[in-house]
Design brief:
The protein has helices at about 50-55, 80, 100-105, 115-125, 140-150, 170-185, 195-200, 220-225, 240-245, 270-275, 290-300, 305-310; strands at about 1-15, 20-35, 40-45, 65-70, 70-75, 85, 155-160, 190, 205-210, 215-220, 225-235, 250-255, 260-265, 285. By secondary structure, it is of the alpha/beta class. The protein folds into 2 domains: about 1-220, Rossmann fold, CATH 3.40.50; about 225-310, Alpha-Beta Plaits (2-Layer Sandwich). The strands form 3 sheets. The chain has a 6-stranded mixed beta sheet with strand order 6-7-8-3-9-10, with helices on both faces. Strands 2-1-4-5 form a 4-stranded antiparallel beta sheet, covered by helices on one side. Strand 12 (about 250-255) and strand 13 form a beta hairpin. Helix 5 (about 140-150) runs parallel beside helix 6. The longest helix has 17 residues, at about 170-185. The protein is elongated. The chain starts with a strand and ends with a helix.
Length: about 300
């Protein structure tokens, strides 16, 4: 298990308005990532996903809070790091490697490195062995690093912007390869992606970060079920946002056209319908939400997408 407790991280930089000072990338984050799951990191741009991944993998040193991997602190700890492979969103550091030298390099650090698996996946993806990665396309570079990561045999694979640069067919093939290999050994896959639909299809659990704060952390089905879209008809007048909030509902989005009201509210379908019994309406309907819709509504409720407009 990866345990993240009260993690706060700041960097030197410019505050909003241009003044010098610390920029808070993560703000009191607490998470549990259980063994054997596929866990998705979601978030707005600059939310802190990459920072948290680098802390988990021992790339950054902890400032406040703690992160343990199977009970061990990962910073400056070769034993803990031997069970983690981190694929970041850049591949420029591999430019001078070939597939052969890449395998030799990582086999010297990871005792469980499987040359058989490395060769099998290299052949399956038709990656040239003697060409430098600098000559590879962006998608081929991503494939090469994924092959290397899987061959290292780690318990945890952490991927930042996991399938960036891949065409749809290759995305599917690479996802199938990763999931099959990780599940076969009961390993844990942690991925971030701006493709929310992809996270919803691939992951068991997901969390959402915004401005360094945790919005939610739950199983995918629970995330979807924890937000409801309702459509209400009231003959005399549309139902106002205030009326819904007076019933104890947390309203993420509200719109009305004539006597028809649409609202997105926190709570399961049963919880929402129970609260709406206190409202005199002529018609009530709930509509299931996708993970992408939950993502959008949660961030819209926090002003994301409108902040830059209001600043101008």
């Amino acid at each position: 298990m990866i345990e993240i407790n009260n993690v706060t991280m700041e960097f030197a930089g410019k505050r909003k308005g241009g003044s010098d000072g610390a920029v808070r990338a993560l703000d009191d984050i607490t998470l549990r990532i259980p063994d054997g799951c596929v866990y998705g990191f979601l978030g707005s741009n600059g939310a802190g996903k990459s920072t948290l991944m680098r802390l988990m993998c021992g790339v950054y040193r902890m400032q406040q809070g703690s992160i343990t991997v199977d009970g061990q602190n990962v910073w400056n700890n070769p034993a803990a790091k031997s069970e983690i492979f981190f694929i970041n969103d850049e591949t420029v550091q591999y430019a001078d490697f070939t597939m052969k030298t890449l395998a030799k390099y990582y086999a010297s650090y990871y005792e469980k490195f499987s040359m058989e698996l490395f060769n099998r996946l290299t052949d399956k993806l038709e990656l040239p062995r003697d060409r430098k990665l600098a000559t590879f396309s962006k998608g081929m570079k991503r494939q090469a690093i994924v092959v290397t990561a899987l061959a290292c045999g780690t318990k945890y694979l952490v991927m930042d912007e996991a399938f960036d640069g891949l065409d749809p067919a290759m995305r599917k093939m690479l996802k199938d390869i990763i999931v099959d290999e990780m599940l076969d050994r009961g390993a844990t896959l942690i991925i971030s992606s701006h493709n929310v639909t992809e996270i919803g299809e691939l992951c068991d659990r997901a969390m959402l970060l915004h401005k360094g704060k945790l919005v939610f952390d739950n199983e995918i089905d629970e995330v979807r079920g924890g937000v409801s879209k309702v459509q209400l008809v009231k003959k005399r007048a549309a139902v106002s946002r205030e009326e819904l909030e007076e019933l104890g509902l947390t309203v993420l989005s509200h719109s009305a056209t004539g006597i028809v009201t649409q609202a997105v509210v926190k709570g399961t379908e049963d919880e929402v319908l129970q609260k709406l019994t206190g409202l005199e309406t002529d018609y009530v309907e709930t509509v299931p939400l996708t993970l992408e819709e939950v993502f959008i509504y949660e961030l819209e409720a926090r002003g994301y997408g409108y902040e830059s407009l209001s600043a101008n």
